[in-house]
User: Fold this.
Amino acid sequence: MLLAGKYRVILAVFNQKGGVGKTTTVLNLGAALAARGLSPLLIDLDPQAHLSLAVGAQNARPEDSTFALFRDPRPLADLIQARPGFDLIPAAAELSKVESLYGGDAAAARRLSEALRSLAVPPSRPVLIDCSPVLGVLSLNALLAADWILIPLGGDFLSMDSLTRLSGGLDVLEKRTGRRLVRRIVFTRFMARRRLSQEIYRRVDARFPGQLCRTLIAENVSLAESPMHGRDVLAHAPSSQGAADYRALLRELLEGGFLEAPAQATSVV
Ligand SMILES: Nc1ncnc2c1ncn2[C@@H]1O[C@H](COP(=O)(O)OP(=O)(O)O)[C@@H](O)[C@H]1O
Ligand SMILES: [Mg+2]
Assistant:
């Protein structure tokens, strides 16, 4: 079924800090979408391939992974693995070579956006991209393809500094491309009893008005455990705080217009 020309939303989950919950967010926001019948396409663009591992798709051959966007490019449709409730394009360790092999090639940063443009995806079917913690060719591919960027904010003080730098980098990118990225920040690994968490929330909200999600993703053991069982948290522990938080995050994003074609949507032609 060819539906080129229809809008669909592409969300990149990015922060150049590691361990802040990017992969956890893609996995579980994806599961929350799947639970609503919105069957997302999850794309693993991180050489660490943790998302692929978490859904039992580790050890993909390079030619069957997102690496194939770069070397002997294959149509994206050939790379999609259908799973119950969602689709996946896995990562492979070879992605770590992309920076050195293609870092000097300006066109390499647009491989994913071009590939997504020519992909027949049903309208309103969301695409979630799990990024590596490096602002290089791989992450640029995600940012240039995306309509939305979701920035998971870990709860330590240094994450505020990296958020300020990231925000500045996104401003530059928007100026250069003339495209607006809808930005949301989500506080992950929130510890309600820690005053530091409360203080960081207050400061980020003041510094980035309208961007910080009201939903807090609490530090929750089920979120840490579920990948070990090859499952998302909704399947692993449906009544856990972690499952409730990611369902609430999706609700908030939907209420904020996620899945609605914004004024400056990516024109998929
Ligand atoms: N809210 C949370 N509560 C408990 N553990 C979490 C939470 N979010 C992430 N983790 C755990 O923290 C580690 C890093 O999270 P991950 O999503 O892999 O971060 P990133 O992709 O940003 O490097 C993983 O072991 C993950 O299971
Ligand atoms: Mg990750």
Observations:
- The radius of gyration is 17 Å.
